[in-house]
Write a structure and sequence with these properties.
Helix content is about 25%, strand content about 40%. With about 120 residues, it is an alpha+beta fold. The protein has two domains: about 35 residues; about 80 residues, Immunoglobulin-like, CATH 2.60.40. β8 and β9 form a beta hairpin. Bound molecules: copper (II) ion. The site of copper (II) ion has 4 residues, from β5.
Length: about 120
């Protein structure tokens, strides 16, 4: 296939850039809309996570440590084990404004945080 025509080469380059943008855009949007909690080394980051009130959210919970954690919240009615190196998605319903504590149930109360809905 001859690629010695400069305008054709330019057109190919433009199509390539457009394709890259098309494939890159959805993941960039997903990252913006996916709040994240990260458990590591006896702590959780952020310890206080603010989410928009009255909006369903897909919360990403990552365990960067080397032993399992259990993301648990009585207020949110959630209890999910996260293995080392794993990221899980926790679906949260539209929450009224308020503070929703959570903790790592495997840490015997040492690791805790809160989700603030407002
Ligand atoms: Cu538990």
């Amino acid at each position: 296939m001859p690629f010695n025509n400069p305008s054709r080469i330019a057109a190919t380059a433009i199509v390539s850039v457009a394709l890259l943008a098309a494939f890159a855009a959805p993941s960039a949007r997903a990252a913006d809309n996916s709040p994240q909690l990260r458990f590591q080394a006896g702590a959780v980051e952020p310890a206080s996570l603010t989410l928009p009130a009255n909006t369903a959210v897909k919360l990403q919970v990552t365990n960067s440590g080397d032993s399992a954690v259990e993301f648990e919240s009585f207020e949110l009615h959630r209890e999910r084990v996260v293995q080392p190196g794993q990221t899980i998605t926790v679906y949260l319903p539209a929450l009224p404004p308020g503070t929703y504590p959570f903790f790592d149930d495997f840490s015997h109360g040492a690791v805790k945080g809160q989700i603030v809905s407002r």
